[in-house]
Amino acid sequence: MNWLSPIGTRLFMTTSPFPPQNMDITITQPLLHGAGIRVNRASVETARLGEQRNILTLQQTVIDKLTETVIAYRNLIKNQEAVRIQELALQSKHRQLAGTQALVDAGRKSQAELIQTQKSIADTEQSLILARNTLAQANSDLLKLIEAERVFKIVIPPADIDAIRRSQLPPVDRSFKELLPIAYATRADYQQAKLEIDTEKLGLLLAKDNEQWNLDLQSSTNLSASPQITAELVLSRTFGEQSPKTERIRREIGVQKNKNKLAQLTQAIRQDVGDRLRDVNSALVQVTASQRAREYAQQQLEVAQTLFRRRGGQVTLFEIIQKQDDLISAQNEETQAKIDYLNAITNLEKAVGLTLETWKSDVDLGLFQS
Fold first, then answer.
1. Are strands 2-4 and 228-236 parallel, antiparallel or unpaired?
2. How many Cα atoms within 13 Å fall on the side-chain side of residue 160?
3. pLDDT above 50 (res 148)
4. What is the domain count for the chain?
5. pTM for the full model?
6. What is the pLDDT of residues 98-128, one digit of tens each?
7. Longest dimension (CA), the chain
8. 27 inside domain
């Protein structure tokens, strides 16, 4: 039987099955090299840290993929909404063309205004073609991210688009001072950097241990008709061997290098969280401004249409067309602003390390929970 204790004690026992039955027991306790719980558990601890690093690597991969997919999904929403807006605009201009044609036939409008409407329809049709092409590309990009086995058209439910269009998008209720400690506690790359230091320290511990002399206390016992017990100190060392010293220096450099990396990452995370929070606040200002711009564009179009319908009004058909185009642009910009805000929130969640927490109902976290 061969047994090794957590502090490095080795017990070796042999027995003879034939008479006279003897039992020999040898106990060896390292006093320098190989002694102590930390040294003897270093390999187990290194394996445990390696497993934790692998889990964090997988976690970071999922976070990156999830963030890209969410942003691509919202990009599809934006482009699908842009197509819808262009289609509605085209329908409106076709109705306007029919009305203008009736006014021209009645002699109340000139043929030139009819040409203006026809040109506006042609421009809108061209814009619609471009919007549909952009939507198709966004659809393709999302399919690649989700690694779809076949090509198909993804149609975002109208309820999802309406939720974005009508949402008030409240500001982030946590300050930079509140978010930064969360980032240091939850970000996978930060935890990995700390584990790298711990792993290198264990390597340094073993390297220093390998430089020590071998000093063992050995005790032997023979259980027979005439029992004997002996004890001795055994001291040994290999002279001229440079590899233990080289390994110790390499590990010391490794520890310092990983500490420097952690310090740089600490500053980078601080900068990242600050930048992403600033992006969120800036995007929210853009949302408010785009909402007002869309409301003003809607009001201006309604006023212009009212004046145009009156005989002797001071608004031309060209001005109506221009204000319709202004409204289309304002609607698209509002949608873009809201998507940008939601994406800014998603990027902030990634910077703080809350992506999996936010999407935990949609992601199986079993692999990441210990």
1. unpaired
2. 12
3. yes
4. 1
5. 0.80
6. 887 887 788 777 777 788 888 889 999 999 9
7. 135
8. yes
Whether the CB-CB separation of 35 and 6 falls below 8 Å is answered with no
DSSP sequence for 190-231: HHHHHHHHHHHHHHHHHHHHHTS-EEEEEEEEEESSS-EEEE
**Token pair for 170:** 């409240």
Phi, psi of 30, rounded to the nearest 5 degrees:
-65, 140
Residue 7's H or E segment, with its range, is: none
Residue 225 CB-density burial (10 A; 0-12 exposed, 13-18 middle, 19+ buried): exposed
- Tokens, residue 228: 């004997």
Range of the domain at 48: 2-362
* Cβ–Cβ < 8 Å for 159, 325: no
Neighbours of 78 (CB within 10 A): 22
DSSP-derived letter for residue 50 is: H
Alpha carbon distance 140, 134 (integer Å): 10
Amino acid at 269: I
Report if residue 367 sits inside a domain: no
Question: Is residue 370 a part of any domain in this protein?
Answer: no
**pLDDT for 123:** 92
Q: Where are the beta strands (DSSP E) in the chain?
A: 2-4, 10-15, 23-30, 214-223, 228-236
- The domain spanning residue 173 has which CATH number? 1.20.1600.10
DSSP 3-state of 323: helix
In a domain, 11, yes or no: yes
Work out whether strand 214-223 and strand 228-236 pair parallel, antiparallel, or are unpaired: antiparallel
